Amino acid sequence: SYKFWKTQPVPKFNEDGGKTKGGPIKVINLDEVPKGPYPLLDGFEWGTIDPEDEKEVGELHELLSNHYVEDDDSTFRLNYSPVFLRWALTAPGWQKQWHIGVRASASQKLVAFISGLPANINVHAQTIKVIEINFLCIHKRLRSKRLAPLLIREITRRCYLQDIYQAIYTAAAVLPTPVASCRYYHRPLNWLKLCESGFSHLPSSSTKARQIAKYHLPSTTQTPGLRLMQADDLDAVHELLGRYLQRFDISPTFSIDELRHLLFFGAGQAKEASSKRVVWAYVVEDLETRKITDFVSFYSIESAVLSHSQNDVIRTAYLYYYASTDSTPNLQQRVQGLINDALILAKKARFDVFNALQLQDNDLFLEKLRFSPGDGRLHYYLFNYQVGPAVNEDASDCLDSQRPGGMGVVML
Ligand code: NHW
Ligand code: EN5
What we know:
Elements lengths: L43 E5 L5 H14 L8 E4 L2 H8 L9 E6 L5 E14 L2 E13 L8 H14 L6 E5 L8 E9 L2 H6 L11 H7 L11 E3 L5 H12 L4 E4 L2 H9 L14 E7 L6 E14 L7 E12 L6 H18 L4 E5 L14 E12 L29
Parallel strand pairs: 5-6, 12-13
Antiparallel strand pairs: 1-3, 2-11, 3-4, 4-5, 4-9, 6-14, 7-13, 7-14, 8-10, 10-11, 11-12
Helix pairs in contact: 1-2
This protein binds 2-oxopentadecyl-CoA and ligand EN5.
């Protein structure tokens, strides 16, 4: 078991990463890193995907929409839209060589993919440069041929050659060794639709009418001063979010340019194009001081319903970054109001369900706002980095996979 992962610089299960010193697991000697690509299976060749080329994004979308992540009993499959993929793969610092495809040599059909984007994260107050790995996917007919380890080795090689020696990634799969394990929570917005598609069930003790009533939301937002985020809010949000994220064991650090990309992409489009919108961001402006006191964002992914014959989809809003200037004990109320408004806005934008993970400060609102735990989990991993003990008092609620509150990174 873990024949491949055993050979990689990741912590073994049951090693106590919180006790040993934090830092890289292995020092990479560039002389030992191959200068050319690893050999592939016969009949296949390496390629890249240019996310700014509509045709190539179309090919990637085709692969992922048929072969990417499903829930445990294949009720649905995630279907990231082409514009979402372009957004996710063109964050500042992106390079074509890190969006790696595998093509069948004869037909040139895209049959596998893995992506990497550079980012900076803080791990117990140490800033490290990492590559964020996402969208690993292999065509169903090429599964179990050890192609995944090859894709991982190849992207690792290309990162080493560009002086990146650490990575962060999330997966539903259990691998050695999670730094956090977070349950998915779901808040129905259109309960009837979820019920009809098999996403949620009618509890035997309830009725459809009672379920619909349970998830009813007001038609307008409740927080005074809440409005769509605008370009000239960027500095304030950068400052607010940066401060807010500092107290998690692991958190991202964004430049202004990164934040602009992450929060504004697609927002410049006309209202009519709102079906193409991928990310929504709102701020709360204090009506007296004109200061930005809070911020919330969410992104959109559809899921294809696999069980019926209809081409049914579930429109899901995923909670993305948020922040508040309030601290305990007012934080709870503040964040509850903020996320409740996000639910109202997502419902107005015709989402069917609002997802959040059990991380950051989400325990402050999940139960109260009628989120329920789902049947899936998301595990967070670092590659070639040992977390080590917490350094400051604030982070003394040391990161361990049973207590995901120390995780501040949200991945797409
Ligand atoms: S998680 C989403 C992953 N994708 C899917 O679930 C889509 C549907 N499934 C598939 O396409 C988000 C295939 O089943 C995949 C595996 C491709 C998953 N991560 O080729 P084989 C991400 O994108 C190990 C890592 O025969 P396959 C994050 C497995 O444990 N490893 O399997 C990606 C076994 O190794 P072992 C995974 O079913 C992070 C080996 O793969 C994995 O045909 C990548 C079997 O390979 C997963 N999700 O293809 C790591 N699933 O040791 C990045 C299975 O047990 C690391 N495996 O023998 C960092 C790299 C950069 C470093 C830079 C410094
Ligand atoms: C890489 N960055 O399992 C990410 N989703 O709970 C890729 N379940 O939606 C990794 N099975 O519980 C993604 N409904 C990993 C996630 C894979 C997808 C996944 C789970 C997460 C999910 C739904 C549907 C289950 C269908 C049957 C679920 C119950 C919700 C219900 C709402 C009403 C109140 C009771 C609960």
